[in-house]
Amino acid sequence: MRPTRLAGSAAAPERTPAREPERTADSPPDAGAAGEAGAEAKGFGTLTAKHTKDRFLNIVIDGRQLGTTPLFRKSVPAGTHTIELIDPQTSEVVTRRTVKVDVGQSVTIVEQ
Q1: Paired sense of beta strands 44-50 and 106-110, if any
Q2: Domain residue spans in the chain?
């Protein structure tokens, strides 16, 4: 059953847009916007990950799977990250490195 509209009735009331929370002098302008990469992430760099043997490896960054090798110039938040290259058949961590990704810079990880 469809609702009926009475003649002369007004349109739906206008909604007021939501207001942003007020900021104090102590809170940075983008507090919370950096996400899981921490407060030092204010931009992005790129990650390249390669395998050298006849196998593909899973790429894990900070405990989350990012993809498989080869991976070229994947955008990642700037900051310090732990990168692991893992053999999907044995779950062996082939390579583990802690790297600092700077804004606009590229980091390359190669299987060792």
Answers
A1: parallel
A2: 47-103
Q: How far apart, in whole angstroms, are the C-alpha atoms of residue 6 and residue 8?
A: 6
pLDDT digit string (tens) for 64-95?
999 999 999 999 999 999 999 999 999 999 99
State how far the Cα of 104 lies from the Cα of 16, in Å rounded to an integer: 39
- Choose among 49, 36, 108: nearest CA to 79: 36
Alpha-carbon span 71 to 6, nearest angstrom: 62
What's the whole-model pTM score?
0.62
Q: Would you call the peptide bond into 13 cis, given omega within 30 degrees of 0 as the criterion?
A: no
Contact 81, 61 (CB under 8 A): yes
Distance CA 8, CA 10 (A): 6
User: For the chain, how big is the Rg over CA atoms in Å?
Assistant: 24
Contact 45, 100 (CB under 8 A): no
pLDDT score recorded for residue 71: 95
